[in-house]
Amino acid sequence: MGHDNDIILETRSLTKEFKGFVAVKGVNIKVRRGTIHAIIGPNGAGKTTCFNLLTKFLQPTSGEIFYNGRDITQFAPADVARLGLVRSFQISAVFPHFTVLENVRIALQRKRGGSFDFWRSESLLSQYDDQARALLADVGLLDLQDKQAAELAYGRKRALEIATTLALDPEMILLDEPTAGMTHEDVERISALVKRVAHNKTVLMVEHNLSVVSGLSDTITVLARGEVLAEGEYKTVSSDPRVIEAYLGTAHG
Asked: Is the pTM of this model over 0.90?
């Protein structure tokens, strides 16, 4: 089967069973290069399981996953990350007792390969400072560069996690509920940030809130009970009677 170069990530009949319970059932998703694609659905829809399958934290019961036309179904999470498919908030752990700047600097070193060089001289490490500050400016954290990561408010910590992910220079970023548990102000800030960083990346995000993805996503895949219920742009899926029924009292309640 030929590969469409416009498709960066594709699943074919992706299925995951847990002791007889089918959490994800025959899911087919195609993510176009350079877009923001959201997987949404009410609680228990199979979003997180699907995401764990895509990032290889779970192995599918059946079905296939392709990244840039390459079958990655059997790959380990670290191998997938090396290909340029990076899951934020999982692979990019934030070090709480390092400063904001140091966290991004560590991620920049990691991209270069080898060890973290903790023992190297400050002058050698400072070669990453300009790049780190540019990334912090991108995510609105430049004024907090000397603060310990542990001191950051929840929304700002999430922004730092996105900055450390970007430091790895992935081709595709997967965001797992990036706005979960946030204040309205933080939701707006993170949404704007996702939009800004997506200009030369592909972003796949899992969300449960339709209103969060409405202004962000090029394509939305709606899951319900482990299956694809609907797919398309926000206007199409939000007016789909099946989606309205699935979300009744869930998305906006």
From this structure: no
